[in-house]
Amino acid sequence: MANLEFWPADGSARRLVPLSPVTTLLVAIMKSGAYIRHDCGGRALCGTCRVEIDSAPQGGGRAAGPSSGAAASPGGGAAAGLGGGAAAGPSLSSSLGLGPMRAAERERLQILGIALDGRIRLACQTYSSRDLGARGCLDKEDR
Ligand code: FES
């Protein structure tokens, strides 16, 4: 079974989250008990569930998340470097075994000013059956 190495945006401890190809990252993270913001309940309307994807989960060897505080902020954060060395570009999602971005996710990310390069995904719209890492971008009070 694949796992997601997840760093909650609230700074709580990293979680190893079991993944299923038929369950979104959001649902998997919530089932694990980790905190992830999801203001619209998973309908691609708010963007608060966004996560920064890391192609190289470390199996628990790192103290910090994929970018150590480079939370994706509209208009710039999405271009922040990843700790795992993932290649940027439109093929990032497919190379990681993530499902393609559907129209609703693309639209929401564009509204937020986030690049559609696959580094930032909406957890409520993303599926994966491969190991990967991700960091929650927004804590409870973040905008
Ligand atoms: S929970 Fe609102 S966009 Fe994912």
List strands and helices in order, with pairings:
Layout: E1 3-7, E2 15-18, H1 25-32, E3 50-54, H2 92-95, H3 103-111, E4 120-122, E5 132-136
Parallel strand pairs: 1-5
Antiparallel strand pairs: 1-2, 3-4, 3-5
Bound molecules: FE2/S2 (inorganic) cluster.
How many domains would you count in the coordinates? 1
| Gap between N and C termini | 34 Å
The helix count comes to: 3
CATH architecture: Roll
CATH topology: Ubiquitin-like (UB roll)
CATH class: Alpha Beta
Strands in their spatial order, largest beta sheet: 2-1-5-3-4
Instruction: Assign the CATH superfamily.
Output: Beta-grasp domain
The helix fraction, in percent, is 10-25%
Description of the structure:
The protein has helices at 25-32, 92-95, 103-111, and strands at 3-7, 15-18, 50-54, 120-122, 132-136. With 143 residues, it is an alpha+beta fold. It has a single domain (3-136), classed as Ubiquitin-like (UB roll), CATH 3.10.20. The chain is globular. Strand 1 and strand 2 form a beta hairpin. The chain starts with a strand and ends in a 7-residue tail after the last strand. 15% of the residues lie in helices and 15% in strands. The protein has three helices and five strands. Strands 2-1-5-3-4 form a five-stranded mixed sheet, covered by helices on one side. The protein binds FE2/S2 (inorganic) cluster. FE2/S2 (inorganic) cluster is lined by residues 38-40, 42-49, 108, 122, 124. Residues 38-40, 42-49, 108, 122, 124 line the site of FE2/S2 (inorganic) cluster (FES).
